[in-house]
Design goal:
alpha+beta, Nuclear Transport Factor 2, Chain: A, globular
Length: 262
């Protein structure tokens, strides 16, 4: 227990130092992410954070990623408040490695949130009641029973961007409405529910769960009546009472694993 407490204190000191420097930076200032590995009480901790340093192609075993290894965190603007910012902990990784979760960690870092892959706790604020109500209404558009064409104009701004792939693939509102219409045809029982929300100012991180039972083939694969449940992580920016920007990540690879399992 004493060793675990020491590990927690060590991680907290690192997290506080990095959040002061990094977490309040704007998206426009963040060209890449830094990666640093430390030990706390014998436990490996991988820190992923925004940085101004140029990224390099790094290979770790089977994983090739774009990071600035051991780079300095991006300095916070002079307007930053007390320096206390959200810390997201992605616990345990996959097969003992943080690298399978690097895309998610990098997405969080690039939206001015410090991401830390380890096995300790998380610290974030609850969203406001207005933010919670907005997001609960918004996510109804993703379920089979929801009318996306009617809901999304009430929950998103006219210039809303819905972005995957770290911002490399963004949809407009109308493009998403069209995509959802096609998706729901093949998934007549599609559900998307909110499991957890964490807020920091005008940014809310949503952990969700999508589920459904495809009819016929799904993404070109026969499903034989099987269903899936997958995790999603969305980073929502809310301005003027509506969502103005979204980063989203869904584990469709896990959906395919479930649908093709014997």
């Amino acid at each position: 227990m004493t060793q675990a407490l020491k590990a927690l204190k060590t991680l907290t000191r690192w997290a506080c130092s990095l959040t002061v420097l990094a977490a309040s930076a704007s998206q426009a200032q963040v060209p890449s992410v830094g990666l640093r590995q430390i030990q706390a009480g014998g436990m490996p901790i991988t820190l992923v954070y925004p940085t101004a340093a140029a990224p390099q192609t790094m290979t770790y075993g089977a994983f090739t990623i774009q990071v600035a290894s051991n780079a300095a965190p991006l300095a916070a603007p002079a307007s930053a408040a007390s320096g206390k910012r959200a810390l997201i902990v992605l616990s345990h990784g996959t097969a003992g490695s943080a690298l399978p979760e690097h895309t998610l960690a990098a997405t969080l870092a690039l939206t001015a949130t410090l991401a830390c892959t380890g096995a300790l706790a998380q610290n974030a604020n609850a969203p406001t009641e207005a933010q919670r109500a907005l997001l609960l209404a918004h996510y109804k558009a993703y379920g089979a029973a929801g009318d996306a064409a009617a809901i999304l104009p009430t929950t998103t701004t006219d210039n809303w961007a819905n972005c995957g792939a770290n911002g490399a693939a963004c949809q407009t509102r109308q493009e998403l409405i069209g995509m959802l219409a096609g998706l729901k045809q093949g998934l007549p029982d599609l559900q998307w529910e909110i499991l957890e929300m964490m807020g920091s100012g005008d940014t809310v991180i949503v952990r969700g769960q999508g589920s459904g039972t495809p009819q016929g083939t799904f993404m070109g694969t026969p499903t034989n009546g099987k269903g899936f449940k997958i995790m999603s992580i969305d980073i929502q920016t809310i301005q003027g009472g509506k969502i103005s920007h979204t980063y989203h990540l869904e584990d469709w690879a896990d959906a395919m694993r479930q649908l093709t399992a014997r």
